[in-house]
Amino acid sequence: MTTVRKVPLRKCVGCQEMKPKRELIRVVHTPEDEVLIDPTGKRNGRGAYLCPNEACLLAAQKRKSLERALKISIPDVVYTQLSQQLQQAVKPS
């Protein structure tokens, strides 16, 4: 008898689609009030998930859904940094 493992699903704050957690990128609001991409998925803080593409990040920025999910107001500079980190995070895989 083989056990079927349940795949954890998370909702992308950009496109609002439920996807497997492993396919998404976690953005975390740390206790030090930083907003960072969490490649390990284990960093301490409040997390939100985004698809690994620019369109979802832009949609989340436009609708302020990332800000609501992380419960912090995010300046445009941080969105620019997230965009750069997102591109770097996607390229190696």
Q: What is Rg? A: 14 Å
CATH class: Alpha Beta
Mean pLDDT: 89
| Largest sheet, spatial ordering of strands | 4-3-5
The CATH topology name reads Hypothetical Cytosolic Protein, Chain: A
| Helix percentage range | 25-40%
Uncertain regions spanning at least 5 consecutive residues: none
What's the end-to-end separation, in Å?
Answer: 34 Å
Largest sheet: 3 strands, antiparallel
Give the strand content.
15-25%
Q: What sequence of helices (H) and strands (E) makes up the elements?
A: EEEEEHHH
CATH superfamily: YlxR-like
CATH architecture: 2-Layer Sandwich
Coarse structural class: alpha+beta
Query: Shape from CA axes?
Result: globular
Total count of domains? 1
InterPro entries: YlxR (IPR037465), YlxR-like_sf (IPR035931), YlxR_dom (IPR007393)
Pfam family, one: YlxR
Protein name: YlxR family protein
Compile the SSE list and pairings.
Layout: E1 9-11, E2 18-20, E3 25-29, E4 35-38, E5 46-50, H1 54-63, H2 65-70, H3 76-90
Antiparallel strand pairs: 1-2, 3-4, 3-5
InterPro entries: YlxR (IPR037465), YlxR-like_sf (IPR035931), YlxR_dom (IPR007393)
Protein name: YlxR family protein
Organism: Alicyclobacillus acidoterrestris (strain ATCC 49025 / DSM 3922 / CIP 106132 / NCIMB 13137 / GD3B)
Descriptive notes:
The chain has 93 residues and is of the alpha+beta class. The protein has a single domain, classed as YlxR-like (Hypothetical Cytosolic Protein, Chain: A, 2-Layer Sandwich), CATH 3.30.1230.10. 33% of the residues lie in helices and 22% in strands. The chain contains 3 helices and 5 strands. The strands form 2 sheets. Strands 4-3-5 form a 3-stranded antiparallel β-sheet. Strands 1-2 form a two-stranded antiparallel ribbon. The longest helix has 15 residues, at 76-90. It is globular. The N and C termini lie far apart (34 Å). The model has no long low-confidence stretch (mean pLDDT 89).
